[in-house]
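Hey all, quick one. A colleague (J.T.) asked me to put the 2-acetamido-2-deoxy-beta-D-glucopyranose job into the tracker so the inputs and the structure tokens live in one place instead of scattered across chat threads. No bug as far as I know, just bookkeeping. Sequence used:
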Amino acid sequence: MFLLPQLGLADGAQRPAHDFHKGLNVLFVVVDDLRPALGSYGDSLVRSPNIDQLASKSVVFQNAFAQQAVCAPSRVSFLTGRRPDSTRLYDFNSYWRMHAGNYTTLPQYFKENGYITMSVGKIFHPGIPSNHSDDYPYSWSIPAFHPSSEKYENTQVCKGKDGKLHANLICPVDVAKMPEATLPDIQSTEEAIRLLKTVKRIKKKFFLAVGYHKPHIPFRYPQKFLKLYPLENITLAPDPAVPKELPSVAYNPWMDLRRREDVAALNLSFPYGPVPEHFQRKIRQSYFASISYVDTLVGKLLNALDEAGLSHNTLVVFTADHGWSLGEHGEWAKYSNFEVATRVPLMFFVPGMTAPISDPGQKVFPFIDPFTQNSRSGPQGKPKEMVELVSLFPTLAELTGLKIPPTCPQPSFHIPLCSEGKSMVQYFPSSSGGQENHGTEQKDSETPVAFSQYPRPGDIPAQNSDLPSLQDIRVMGYSIRTPDYRCTVWFGFNPNNFTVNVKDIHGGELYFEKSDPHEDHNRYKDVVHGFFTPKLCNIIDYLKLGSTSIQ
Ligand SMILES: *[C@@H]1O[C@H](CO)[C@@H](O)[C@H](O)[C@H]1NC(C)=O
Ligand SMILES: *[C@@H]1O[C@H](CO)[C@@H](O)[C@H](O)[C@H]1NC(C)=O
Ligand SMILES: *[C@@H]1O[C@H](CO)[C@@H](O)[C@H](O)[C@H]1NC(C)=O
Ligand SMILES: *[C@@H]1O[C@H](CO)[C@@H](O)[C@H](O)[C@H]1NC(C)=O
């Protein structure tokens, strides 16, 4: 078992450490489409003082990756602790309990272990992937909360240059003039704060999941956040052109942006664009402004944790479902295996472990106004190991003293409770993570790698390349990220029997992260020509981790 160090116990706090460890509540914050564009991840433009403050008291993973860079598959993967090949959800059209296996979810596990579990905003992807119920009653003690103003997200509420209202991509708004005079994430924050007060009153252990919708498009956010990002300060992506050696199967044509009225008016050519430079800056500006907006809401939520007297016994985990391309490689949105689409922020605040246990009533997370202050306190611990969101389930179990779910056999469709990830607690720095790992917990001797995948309907970018339905998938791109490189190989895939044909290669990508951090210089042909050992791109070994059959 992992041992809690004595470090950080507040004066006079004499409780046996492991008792504390055991009873921790969990506040699980998931932000939609947020890449690590945060001060605490070294971004010098983005203002995220409240998330940075959380980071300063947390263990902050520098290299955390989603298993598939699109909402529903990523969420079902990390919430069940299984890879997409085991949930068999690569699109938005099935419910794992009916389609793959009756898997116990992360919140369900906490519920079954005596926690009140609650979902606010977007945790499961709503609709078919969670059976139109957010997997209630299995995962949650009470029905999930969805903000009522979410229904206006795609309606004509954005003021255009012509003074009329449009369904635009870029949509800074006067909140008072919005339908219901609010926005979804504001409502979710209010509901989460109300639930924190309620659980405090009834004295129950809780697992509260809060899912923010921004910076997911459309960028509908309070217009005052634009002031933090003057357009003249916004740069383009360092590599705004589609790389010449990018296999066409790897490219995603970002259809969801093209369909917005303001983007459609640009008459962009399909599939490669490009987006005019002034509009690229506007997209980046609104993405960053949306992050600062979410940051203030996270600040209010954490401040409410203080006010409810819960910061000393609540674990806070902060992450995102996947990243987002901001013009890198001429791409936008998620829908790819690139670093910008798969890498996510991931941090764990564990009282008594990553920060001293505060006295009840002490302010741990005072609200920081991004307009007046932009503290850039660095993260508390910064493990560099490659870790995966599929490992959240065993990690949170270990951190709260619950039994770690067993490792899944392959295949594991018939097993309700197991995990395809590995607890990340072994990578917590020893100053916060247990006296020099003395305890029985040993670091795995192998260097961890992160594994992501993305499906395509064919080799040439088409209208459905971003998000093909299961029956249209013909190619699956499997990607390994090691500390040194990313290798992605696109194999033939049969959606009728979920088999991968490893002899049918539709494209390969190899990027060395040190010399090519933006992943623009594809060296895969050097593998084919034998300049590098084929072991470098030996995805097949990694495929054996998942539940897909190999031909
Ligand atoms: C699936 O799991 C749930 C929760 O563990 C259980 O209530 C239900 O009966 C199971 N369904 C089937 C078909 O086994
Ligand atoms: C999914 O929802 C339907 C309709 O409400 C219900 O009949 C079915 O039992 C649900 N599936 C599971 C596995 O609970
Ligand atoms: C914009 O850039 C200028 C010049 O680098 C800098 O002085 C200013 O602080 C920046 N403004 C903001 C809001 O970041
Ligand atoms: C886009 O095409 C329409 C119709 O052909 C034209 O009226 C409009 O001026 C074009 N817009 C741009 C930005 O080129």
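Adding what we noticed when we looked at it: The pocket of 2-acetamido-2-deoxy-beta-D-glucopyranose (ligand 1) is lined by residues 102, 138 (CB under 6 Å). Residues 1-20, 433-440 have pLDDT under 50 and may be disordered.
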